[in-house]
Amino acid sequence: MTTILVTGGTGTLGRLVTERLRADGHEVRVLSRHAQPYAVDLIRGGDGLDAAVAGVDAIVHCASRQRGGDEQAAAHLISAARRAGVPHLVYISIVGVDVVPLGYYKTKYAVEKLIEESGLGWTILRTTQFHDFLAQMFEAMGKLPVLPLTAGVSYQPIEVAEVANRLAELAVGEPAGRVEAMGGPEVRTLPDLARAWLRATGRRRPMVSVPVPGKVLRALRAGGHLAPANAVGKGTFEEHLVARHGGVASAR
């Protein structure tokens, strides 16, 4: 039986990866700051990390924090994996980390480099943004009297469960390096996605197009975060909204 460690195994993605692996009959260890018996703060490293990685056949590294620390966490995990002789480290990244100069993207790209140079067997999967990301973004915007939408930006959201399934497949396979990216089924403009969210939530908000200058928005408007040639996702944003809010998906 394969033993796999999932970091961030209680998060949105990691929880689904864990469920899929267990459903397939694998032994899964869940590492997060509060999940016993492998409660470890990867940013600090230290006690518990060596025990968590000991004897595992693969690590799926899903743990990530927008507010920083991912490089330190990855360095601690890689060191522990080397000491334990872990044969395979799988990492989830984002399409565009090498071209969109967002701070978080730069950090994800730096982690990719650490893994590539680690001496471990590795696999890196990049995906486009999850449906959850856009839904949460609109929910935050929905507290305002208008929806301020960045002008000229499109997204290609993908269902997180599909990504989890792919990570589970990769984890039980051989190290494959950088595999083909996963993109959602459609590239859609931000206003189009916002209208879908408004319909699903029964809200009425005027939408305002906001021109935003700068290198980050220039890269996003150029589609650096998109993967139209890898539109392998099946679940649509409307289907995600139905699961999230109930109701019936409506046509655009």
UniProtKB/TrEMBL annotation:
PANTHER family, A to Z: NADH DEHYDROGENASE [UBIQUINONE] 1 ALPHA SUBCOMPLEX SUBUNIT 9, MITOCHONDRIAL, NADH-UBIQUINONE OXIDOREDUCTASE 39 KDA SUBUNIT-RELATED
Gene Ontology MF annotations: protein-containing complex binding
Domain NAD(P)-binding: 8-143
Pfam family for this entry, one: NAD_binding_10
Transmembrane segments: none
InterPro entries: ComplexI_NDUFA9_subunit, NAD(P)-bd_dom, NAD(P)-bd_dom_sf
Protein name as annotated: Nucleoside-diphosphate sugar epimerase
Domain of life: Bacteria
Species per Swiss-Prot/TrEMBL record: Streptomyces colonosanans
